[in-house]
Amino acid sequence: MKIELQAYGKVNLGLDVLRRRPDGYHEVKMIMQTVKLHDTLTFETVDEDVIVLSTNADELPVNEDNLVYKACRMLKQEYQITRGIRVFLQKELPVAAGMAGGSADAAAALIGMNKIFDLQIPKHKLMEYGVKLGADVPYCIMKGTALSEGIGEKLTALAPMPDCYILLAKPPIAVSTKMVYENLHANELEKHPDIDGMVMALEEQSLQGITERMENVLETVTEVRYPVIAEIKACMKECGAMNSLMSGSGPTVFGIFTEKEKAEKAADAIRSRKLAKQVFVTQPYNV
């Protein structure tokens, strides 16, 4: 048996860190939005009791260090599945980009295992398995527009994002999420994004109301260290973006456009200025 699934990336329309807890975790309040840019995973059952993972992305591991492998192994063990699985991961989402690409792949692996072996695991239970793999995995199972709270595990579905075009640009730098959070003085932040106002703007289907509230407190760390992030944001706005922002802990920057032509012109400008090679025009993916 063979099935194919898409693993969709995400951006953070707003990202606030409320405080650092005594246990070292950070309490967040953020709005996540799935985008149509995706990886594709192909699953095929085999008779031998194995997990075989392969990918077009040379930089990714294909053993137990990969979240897809871990997801498959988790459900194989949990449900005592003796047949094997072969997975091919066609990577399109940028790697280590603040777009939850690895988490999206893990989410697709859980969904794929559930389908191909007819395990009949309900969605809420799949999300519980997901949280064991990573904080973003339950959201990637849920998809759409959501408010994420706590340490990222409390999810509330929101009104869908209005139609628009989303330009994504990942500069050729690696940003450590651990480094960003360690250098964020969460308890001393003077300004916080208006997340509640953005929730209302989504309910009103006001793209203007959403874009004018776009803010990510993690930029206070990354923009200082990596000026290219601010350069990409400025370029997108110059080219007609309603607003632009870094997604997650970076380094991917996204801009919101009302017209596809403007988004594509901005993409060309980013490439010609050599600010980023990985540049994509996509749209919100709403469930």
UniProtKB/TrEMBL annotation:
UniProt enzyme class? transferase
The terms under GO molecular function for this entry are: 4-(cytidine 5'-diphospho)-2-C-methyl-D-erythritol kinase activity
Q: What does UniProt give as the signal peptide span?
A: none
Q: Which domain of life is it from?
A: Bacteria
For the GHMP kinase N-terminal domain, which residue ranges apply?
Answer: 66-144
What positions does the domain GHMP kinase C-terminal occupy?
201-272
Record's keyword terms, sorted: ATP-binding, Isoprene biosynthesis, Kinase, Nucleotide-binding, Transferase
Which species does the entry assign this protein to?
Answer: Coprococcus ammoniilyticus
**Pfam family membership, one:** GHMP_kinases_C
- This protein is called 4-diphosphocytidyl-2-C-methyl-D-erythritol kinase
Question: Which pathway is this protein engaged in?
Answer: Isoprenoid biosynthesis; isopentenyl diphosphate biosynthesis via DXP pathway; isopentenyl diphosphate from 1-deoxy-D-xylulose 5-phosphate: step 3/6
Q: Does the keyword Kinase apply?
A: yes
EC number(s) recorded for this UniProt protein: 2.7.1.148
- What is known about what this protein does? Catalyzes the phosphorylation of the position 2 hydroxy group of 4-diphosphocytidyl-2C-methyl-D-erythritol.
Q: What reaction does this enzyme carry out catalytically?
A: 4-CDP-2-C-methyl-D-erythritol + ATP = 4-CDP-2-C-methyl-D-erythritol 2-phosphate + ADP + H(+)
Matching entries from InterPro entries are given as: GHMP_kinase_C_dom (IPR013750), GHMP_kinase_C_sf (IPR036554), GHMP_kinase_N_dom (IPR006204), IspE (IPR004424), Ribosomal_Su5_D2-typ_SF (IPR020568), Ribsml_uS5_D2-typ_fold_subgr (IPR014721)
Gene3D superfamilies (alphabetical): 3.30.230.10, GHMP kinase, C-terminal domain
- Protein family membership: Belongs to the GHMP kinase family. IspE subfamily.
Task: Provide the binding site for ATP.
Answer: P94, V95, A96, A97, G98, M99, A100, G101, G102, S103, A104
Task: Show the active-site residues.
Answer: K10, D136
